[in-house]
Amino acid sequence: MIVIVSAVYAAARYLAVVPISDSPFTASVNTLALDSEVVWQVEEYATGLIIPWSMVFTSQERMLVTERPGSVRVIENGRLIDQPLHTFSEVTSTSEEGLMGLVLDPDYATNKYLYASLAYTKDTNLVVKIVKFKDQGNSISDVQVIFDDIPAARNHAGNRLRFGPDGKLYSTTGDATEKTLAQNLDSVAGKILRLNSDGSIPSDNPFPNSPIYSYGHRNAQGIDWQPGTGLLFETEHGPSLFDGPAGGDEVNIIEAGQNYGWPLVSHLKTQAGTQAPLLVYTPAEAPGSGTFYSSDVIPQFKNNFFFGALKGEGLVRLVFNPENHRQVQSQEKLFDGEYGRIRDVAQGLDGALYFSTSNRDGRGAAKTGDDKILRIIRK
Length: 379
Fold this sequence. Notes:
The protein is mainly β and 379 residues long. The protein has one domain: TolB, C-terminal domain (Neuraminidase, 6 Propeller). It has two helices and 26 strands. β21 and β22 form a beta hairpin. It is globular and about 50 Å long.
């Protein structure tokens, strides 16, 4: 199925869905400029997945996808291969936890290593571990646990993996529904971690002999670096009534060693010693990812930040002020409600923008073919 979208249609789809925070980095609600825009279209790329969480591209023709129940799936030229690349039998997946993050080694082309994060039971405790393994094409080998014992729970176990421009491995962690852990520098829960590729601690981390890069996070599930500036952006789920007033999802600019406030503050509240969010979303959008688009294939998307909205059921696009890269100039929600819950978003090697649904996760309404991966391509 292909949906053709013109530049005028894209602008008409603009929604002012976000009350903007009172931080210095405010966003204005403006109609998106149409200069230099091209016509793009959406097409189904693959169907029949079970709660896809992360996508990576090993070539223009081959994609690997983690499914939350525990399998790494292979998609070749839009066809989902029946046999998984691997299934992690120890994965626990009862609610939000499971097989989550997936990322390629920066030297994947020569060493074929990947990294994944998964929840499992260890000594009666639910924890997340990060594993490193080699892609053999039809199977994996050389599985190594490089980091373990990240506190987890059925909820708030979010674990997005990314390699930064500095070659270090970054990992988000949830607060495991024990919100006080987010402020505890002796715990890796509610943090962004920074590791060497073997799981060891970099010598230049902000806290000596600690993997912690930033803290005070509730349940972050998206991180990426802004092209040109190298600024680290993060998306984070806000409270869910049992631990605070509903809403308060955040987009943050992350600085080394800083405290992002949870649970001391949330929503638009501020406190000395904590960093205010760039944007706050109330009602909740439930951001499940985050990526910058850097290709010239769809020029109006270049350097825009996208994240999948689970509860909000759409793909949120942030456009930045070219004179101030910390300032959101405008924003829109694409596909509002059209495809249901959207989790991951990633730029393909072909310059297309891929996004995945999460309608079989127990919180969505599964449709024919779900879960799916779709892509935005230039017509």
